[in-house]
Design goal:
alpha+beta; 8 strands; 122 residues; 20% helix
Length: 122
Amino acid sequence: MRQPDVEIYVKEADRDAVTQWLTHALGPCTPWQPRGQTFKCSAGALAITWFPKAVGKWHSLYIEGEQIPWETDLACARSAHAALGMQIRCAPGGWQEQDSNENDRWLKIDKDGETEIIWKTD
């Protein structure tokens, strides 16, 4: 089932490289606009938020809208890893605010493949 948004975490990524990947995957992106601790842009009807160092050295990339080309966070993470060649992390399934300890379960995508890990983000 297609998610209404996707979120991935990219370690120590260069935002320009991420923008190039997004432009290739989604179409031209508007310039990034600072909004507090985040940066926002759009690609077509998609709203994109970049949260630098959201968790330590990990940057959050959050995409929302009805035309997201990836059905899941994992599909987006796979695309990002293939394009950027760096480790990407994402939730193993949909995420809900009321979820508790399940939030520590993550998928790590890197040169060695996909691995489920425990990642304490708070």
